[in-house]
Model the fold of this input.
Amino acid sequence: MILGITGGVAVGKSTAARFFEKLGAVTVSADQLARDVVAPGSATLKKLVEYFGARILLADGSLDRKVLGDIIFNDPGARRFLNETTHREVGLLAVQRLKELKEKEVPLIIYESPLLFEAGAEDRVDAVLVITTQRKNQLERLLKRPGMTRAKAEAMIDSHMSQEEKAARADYVIDSNGTRAELESKIRALFGRLTGSQEVDHQKRGKK
Done:
């Protein structure tokens, strides 16, 4: 089974994925795939350099993700070009990696994708888990990142699909408002439900 994990920025998606891994699940990260498709020398990176210029490259020829992020942050056109250029390649690589894992004997496959719904990638997974948290928690976590300002953190949160909309489209919803131990307990319960080893103790939502 492939479980997609998604949610807003800084809600705890990666933490949830790591808890699943502790239980034996294998994770495919869309963020890592996005890095893979823009590796030095790749055709995708060349397209980005043609559009944005060499300023987006580090000295070793790799992509400077911070510079690129700053460029697209307030430029919808540039953000659209980036998404159109990378999403297809990420999608193709995701399908390939997930297919390879399905052919192996693993208890659960996790596809962690912040933009699962936005990219229309629900068909890559069998069910969707949305991680949610209170906005104040998102802000607190974002403000710990280097160079982050409150204004930028607010804008990052607001630029994504709302948590409410994502939750409404999910099969499962787990909040990360409590402690890490509480989140791990919820993940363990869901893992048990999905792998048939124990009952789950959270609410199941209907898929769209």
The first strand starts at residue 2 and ends at 7. The two ends are 19 Å apart (CA to CA).
